[in-house]
Amino acid sequence: MRKFFHLYIYSTLIAFAFLGLWVYITNFTELLDPVIFPSPEIVVIAFGKAILDLFKGFLSSMGLLVPAFALALVLGIGGGLYFGLHHRFRVILEPFFQTFSPLPPTLFIPYAIALFPTFKSASIFILFITTFWPIFLGTIQGVLLIDKPYWDNARTIGLKGKDLIFKVILPASSPLILSGIGTSLGFSFIVLMMAEMFGAESGMGHFIQYYTDFTQYDFVLAGIIFNSLIILAIMIIFEKIKKRLLFWTNLKSEAN
């Protein structure tokens, strides 16, 4: 706990400053419309009333995000390793990678709706596209940027096949792979919320859209705060996992 406050003391102070400003503006001034910007105590009451629905929405959202992200991890890392290690095929298909990877996933929504039988399967497809490209391209770059001594040492001790991949290639390219995974995770929440706000019957984004339609902005703000906390928690957990997997880079930075 002491370490946490040491690291995030200024972040905590800024958060309390914003909260105090919110309390002051909504309770002691008329700068904001009280319907659209209710006071914190009203939002807290709404939060308590909706907590079960919020967690149900979270579970529904994870039902879309988890399978899409898992598929993107398998195909993104697997495909990135293949094309990173096979120069000829990479050169042939690289123009297509550069063409399709920058396209916003939302462009494919009409085809997803037309081709997939349910909203869930269409959403998983769109989320897969969102998360696939950063992981795939990050893996390729990670393989290409492996230092030559790693390859020389692997050849010297005769590493091949799975041993070469799991003992040399993946560890050496893991910083860029994990960087791509982090980027994918951030993008996935943006697309997930958009999809749920305009087509879902449940989920974290649907919760906000539902109460927006009824102009119940205390519940809207409760949903926004809940979503922000969930996303923050997931990203912190990912960063912890990333640091654990890249422990050797932390040792380098401490040595310097």
UniProtKB/TrEMBL annotation:
Entry's transmembrane regions: 7-25, 64-84, 96-116, 122-146, 176-199, 219-238
Superkingdom per UniProt: Bacteria
GO CC aspect terms: plasma membrane
Membrane topology type: Multi-pass membrane protein
Cited InterPro entries: MetI-like, MetI-like_sf
Biological process (GO), any one: transmembrane transport
Keywords linked to the UniProt accession: Cell membrane, Membrane, Transmembrane, Transmembrane helix, Transport
Subcellular location: Cell membrane
Domain ABC transmembrane type-1: 58-238
PROSITE patterns, sorted: ABC_TM1
Family according to the record: Belongs to the binding-protein-dependent transport system permease family.
UniProt xrefs under PANTHER family: ABC TRANSPORTER PERMEASE PROTEIN MJ0413-RELATED, ALKANE SULFONATE ABC TRANSPORTER-RELATED, MEMBRANE SUBUNIT
Name listed for the protein in its UniProt record: ABC transporter permease subunit
